[in-house]
């Protein structure tokens, strides 16, 4: 798949229009504009979890999406792409598969987390659905971030870089963009590393599916479930529960690796 994709991208680079320098520059500017729009919306320093702040920042993120999609569409069209929206993953073909199979993959990966939530505090977890932060973190955040960082940035970089290099390079601005609201240096390093790893996966997912819904649904589920809570396992007094949780986490990771290839075949998503 990657070899065929590389051949396709090489053909695209030989066509006229906007050069790679401009495409890469836009892919760097879009993350800056995303963060810039958010700061402009909250220039008075309001708490980012305040409902009014969430509304302002959501409007700013949507406005940035409109700008980025418009510019990316024009850039791809100028490079000779006859279907810019398809290249950005904004298409209806393969939509159901893009919702189903990535959800299965990430849910399998989080097997241990599901078991822990069941054993620990499911009612507290459900209460989070009623908060404004849930709307931001699980709905608006994933949609607006994936449109900017995957649909626009990856679409532009794919014209100039091989699929493998795109997977390596594209998540860097995405990871850096999450550092602006973290004060502690150690948390900054951890957050950047985690976000980069996540970014490489959803970039691979986007390239395989060419469907915006695939990274969006994955991002939403990951934000909903959070980081694996390995540290919580030893707090369970029951040895049976501890063994069950470690087994669930390990088996989830193993099954995820085994299913990754079969469930990301382009044919499943009508990505011919």
Which terms would index this structure?
272 residues, mainly alpha, 14 helices, 0% strand
What Rg do the Cα atoms give? 20 Å
Low-confidence stretches: 10-16
Shape annotation: globular
Distance between the termini: 10 Å
Could you describe the largest sheet, including whether it forms a barrel? none
What fraction strand?
A: under 5%
Number of strands: 0
Structural class estimated from helices and strands: mainly alpha
Count structural domains.
1
Counting H and I runs of at least 4 residues, what is the number of helices? 14
Q: Mean pLDDT, rounded to whole units? A: 87
Helix-strand sequence = HHHHHHHHHHHHHH
Query: Helix coverage percent of residues?
Result: over 70%
Organism: Nippostrongylus brasiliensis (Rat hookworm)
EC number: 3.4.26.1
Keywords: Endoplasmic reticulum, Hydrolase, Membrane, Protease, Transmembrane, Transmembrane helix
Subcellular location: Endoplasmic reticulum membrane
Plain-language structure description:
This protein is mainly alpha-helical. It has 14 helices and no strands. It has one domain. Belongs to the peptidase U48 family.
Furnish the topology, listing elements before pairings.
Elements: H1 2-13, H2 20-41, H3 51-78, H4 84-87, H5 95-109, H6 111-119, H7 122-127, H8 132-157, H9 163-169, H10 171-176, H11 185-209, H12 213-225, H13 230-233, H14 239-260
Helix pairs in contact: 2-3, 2-8, 3-8, 5-12, 5-14, 6-14, 8-12, 9-11, 11-12
């Amino acid at each position: 798949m990657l070899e065929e994709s590389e051949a396709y991208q090489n053909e695209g680079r030989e066509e006229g229009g906007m050069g790679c320098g401009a495409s890469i520059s836009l892919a760097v500017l879009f993350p800056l504009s995303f963060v810039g729009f958010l700061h402009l919306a909250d220039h008075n320093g309001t708490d980012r979890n305040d409902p009014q702040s969430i509304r302002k920042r959501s409007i700013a993120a949507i406005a940035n999406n409109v700008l980025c999609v418009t510019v990316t569409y024009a850039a791809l069209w100028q490079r000779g792409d006859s279907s810019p929206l398809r290249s950005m993953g904004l298409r209806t073909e393969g939509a159901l598969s893009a919702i189903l199979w990535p959800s299965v993959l990430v849910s399998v990966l989080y097997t241990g987390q599901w078991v822990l939530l069941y054993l620990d505090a499911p009612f507290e977890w459900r209460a989070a659905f009623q908060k404004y932060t849930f709307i931001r973190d699980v709905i608006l955040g994933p949609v607006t971030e994936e449109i900017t960082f995957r649909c626009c940035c990856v679409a532009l970089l794919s014209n100039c870089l091989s699929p493998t290099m795109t997977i390596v390079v594209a998540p860097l601005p995405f990871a850096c963009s999450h550092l602006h609201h973290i004060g502690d240096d150690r948390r900054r390093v951890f957050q950047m590393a985690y976000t980069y790893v996540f970014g490489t996966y959803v970039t691979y997912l986007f390239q395989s599916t060419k469907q915006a819904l695939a990274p969006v649904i994955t991002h939403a589920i990951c934000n909903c479930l959070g980081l694996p809570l390995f540290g919580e396992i030893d707090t369970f007094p029951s040895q049976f529960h501890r063994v069950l949780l470690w087994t669930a986490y390990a088996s989830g990771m193993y099954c995820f690796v085994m299913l990754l290839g079969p469930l990301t075949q382009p044919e499943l998503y009508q990505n011919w």
